[in-house]
Write a structure and sequence with these properties.
Blueprint lengths: L19 E7 L4 H12 L2 E13 L7 H17 L2 H6 L2 E9 L2 H12 L3 E5 L7 H16 L3 E5 L10 E4 L4 H13 L5 E8 L3 H7 L4 H23 L8 E8 L2 H11 L4 E5 L7 H4 L3 H8 L3 E5 L10
Parallel strand pairs: 1-2, 1-4, 2-3, 4-5, 6-7, 6-9, 7-8, 9-10
Antiparallel strand pairs: 5-10
Helix pairs in contact: 4-5, 7-8, 9-11
């Protein structure tokens, strides 16, 4: 059984070798799943990389299992054939896998067995539908259990990512997220980096009867400290050949991320799997799943393991 390796790049500067070797794409043969496969083929892939297309059939008891399995295998084969044109541009192998079981559990196990660096999943555009809610529960289960990075794809992909946004809270998970952007978006010249800082002490000051001038002074100091911390956080990456647009906000982390993503017209939002920012540390401890549900663009959710250079 293969072991999982976290996403990483061999150096952060321009011209360095980057690329994924093993990408798992979950499919239910819907248009959303097709978008996920298209996006996977647009990611930076190493020569000889492998994409595993996985479909999970529910574990059932009955006489129609063989017919259902045959139809699913045929659909998988058709999906693989449709990638031939894209594979002419990228030297990679696409193969399929059909498994039975509970979707989140089966995909998690498949990712472990495959040694996936990244799992890609399509997100429905109509979250009010029953099927969409089922997919949302699947994505939520994967976010908590998947052993590696999870990319949730929304709109049909047009080109490689051009306008990434990274949310950071200065943890190792945040550093992993920033380095993942430099890995997945080797052609970008600008990355928006958002830190949502905590101003909850202002409420304590207000309740203790502090003067307005003291509260405003605290808020100014908190913002200045957040900017300084963000600059220190980004210091190791100043030679990466990328301009960092430094953004600091206070308040609800999810709302800030979604608002900035709209303002920046981001095509990719990247967060740590257990990112905790500002007041959301208390009222919304898991920012990643909330952003994945509400974002209109693609969302990459990463775990807390530190990245390291992938082997050649």
């Amino acid at each position: 059984m293969m072991t999982h390796e976290p996403m990483a790049s061999e150096g952060l500067g321009p011209g360095r070798t980057v690329g994924l070797s093993r990408v798992l794409v979950a499919t239910d043969f819907s248009p959303h799943a097709s978008c996920a496969l298209e996006r996977a083929l647009q990611l930076p892939l190493r020569e000889g990389a492998e994409i595993l297309l996985v479909h999970v059939l529910k574990a059932t008891v009955g006489g129609r299992d063989e017919e259902e399995e045959a139809l699913a295998r045929h659909a998988l084969e058709e999906s693989v054939l449709l990638t031939q044109e894209a594979r002419a541009r990228v030297v990679c192998k696409v193969r399929s896998l059909l498994v039975r079981g509970i979707p989140a559990e089966s995909l998690t196990q498949a990712a472990r067995d495959f040694g996936a660096e990244l799992v890609v999943l399509g997100r429905p555009r109509h979250p009010s539908s029953l099927l969409a809610r089922m997919r949302e529960r699947l994505a939520g289960g994967l976010i908590e259990s998947i052993p590696t990075a999870l990319l949730i794809v929304g709109p049909p992909p047009v080109c490689p990512y051009q306008r990434p946004l990274v949310a950071v809270d200065f943890t190792e998970a945040s550093r992993h997220a920033l380095e993942a952007v430099l890995h997945l978006c080797p052609g970008v010249s600008r990355v928006a980096v958002l830190h949502d800082y905590d101003t909850s002490y202002a409420l304590v000051l207000h309740q203790s009867g502090a003067q307005l001038s003291r509260i405003l002074e605290y808020q100014r100091e908190a913002k200045a400290q957040a900017r300084a911390e963000l600059q220190r956080f980004l210091a190791p990456y100043r030679d990466a050949g990328v301009y960092f647009d430094e953004i600091v906000r206070s308040g609800d982390a999810t709302a800030s991320i979604l608002e900035i993503a709209q303002e920046e017209q981001a095509d990719l939002v990247v967060v740590g799997r257990h990112l905790r920012l500002g007041l959301s540390r208390i009222v919304r401890p898991h920012t990643g799943p909330q952003v994945a549900r509400e974002s209109t663009c693609d969302v990459l959710i990463l775990g807390q393991e530190a990245p390291h250079a992938a082997g050649t």
